[in-house]
Amino acid sequence: MSKKRALESFFTPASQKKARSDRAPSDSTALTPVCQHTTDHPTSTHSTYPHPVPHLPPHIQAALSEIPASEGRQINDQPDLDLLYFQPFIPSGIENELFRFLRKELFFYRVKYKIKRGGFETDISTPRYTTVFGVDQTSKFEPSASTLVDTKSSKPVPPDRYDCTPRPLPQCLDALRCITEVFTNSEYNFCLVNYYASGSDSISYHSDDERFLGAMPSIASFSLGAKRDFCMKHKPVPPGNDAKDNISDKPLKLPLGSGDMVLMRGTTQANWLHSIPKRSGKGTQEGRINITFRKALVKGGTENYYRYNVGDGGVWRWDEGTKEMKERKNGS
Ligand SMILES: O=C(O)CCC(=O)C(=O)O
Predict the structure, then answer these.
(1) Residue spans with biased composition (Low complexity) (predicted)?
(2) Which of 40, 49, 142, 186 has a CA between 20 and 30 Å from the CA of residue 135?
(3) Torsion over CA of 78, 79, 83 and 84, rounded to 10 degrees?
């Protein structure tokens, strides 16, 4: 499918869309994304939001028609690794406006939780700001009413189905999700957002290999704002396994810049770990937003994502005066 067709598809109201049978630019099976955008309300509101989230300003929305700003580069020269790296995906010029818009308009959390380590309970403070929107594929938000309904029966989901409160994606993130679905040929029902306030914020080595994402998940990961290194290394391979000889000892390092997107797919999550290490020194103290789109299959995924990305603490918002996140009382 041509870029023009993909974008026509994106900007056409869902009610006018026909099923497509041709192929999208990446080389997997074609897909018809369902993207319903209303432009008649300037904000996204929902009973689960601490405050309304403005829609994308029209000029940012219009600039998204230039996506992707460059061809994706395949990185698959090591065992089990399958990446598509867009440098950038979001056109230069608009990506910093998008960064500032999302930092100002979204609400974040600084999640604390306890884990058992060596028989002892340990307190963990997530070293970055997080937020999450979406629900696994057993439920969906009816676009008109914003009500959570069961995907099979279309009946409202009983209040005790989840031990969290799922939230729909606001339009400003859903617009990007829709476009990303077209260009990655995958569906996404979750959006996780990280805000790294400075080089001291980080995410340690992990893989997104939870069973609730399925066997070979596609995860589209966007960077906005400060440049940070994205480090990847293969999971430990048992001695004697031939694959070991072909794996580099040095971690793979992608210097993610504002507007870049990395699509991790295939066997990547099952075999590779990734991280954003802490950084110090000149130029590392600026903020960075990371947005990932994923697809959770079952309710355990929804509960996991809200537990670790919303938690039960206060709401944080960007303060333009002091140029830092501030905890808001009563969602103000
Ligand atoms: O910030 C990034 O680029 C990575 C985020 C990440 O690994 C995650 O949210 O699982």
Answers:
(1) 41-50
(2) 40
(3) 60
pLDDT category, 25, cuts 50, 70, 90? very low
Please check whether residue 73 is in contact with residue 87, taking contact to mean a CB–CB distance below 8 angstroms.
yes
Model confidence at 224: pLDDT above 60: yes
Looking at domain 3-17+44-311, which CATH architecture does it have?
A: Sandwich (2.60)
In this predicted model, what pLDDT tens digit does every residue of 53-87 receive, in sequence order? 999 999 999 999 889 999 999 999 999 999 999 99
Annotated binding site for 2-oxoglutarate: 194, 196, 206, 274, 288, 292, 294
- Residue 14's CB is within 10 A of a number of other CB atoms, namely 13
E runs forming strands in 39-146: 43-44, 53-54, 73-75, 83-86, 112-117, 120-125, 129-134, 139-142
Ligand 1 center to 269 CA (angstroms): 12
- How would you classify the pairing of strands 228-234 and 272-276? antiparallel
Check if 180 has its Cβ closer than 6 Å to any atom of ligand 1.
no
Rounded to a whole number, what is the distance in angstroms from the first to the last CA of the chain?
A: 45
Which residues are within 8 A (CB) of 211 and not within 5 positions of it... i.e. 6 or more apart?
none
Structure tokens at 283: 């130029």
Q: Where are the chain's structural domains? A: 3-17+44-311
**Residue 83 CA, distance from chain mean position:** 16
For residue 144, give Cα distances in angstroms to 8, 62, 141, 168: 23, 24, 9, 12
pLDDT in tens, 245-270: 788 889 999 999 999 999 999 999 99
Given this model, what pLDDT does residue 35 score? 58
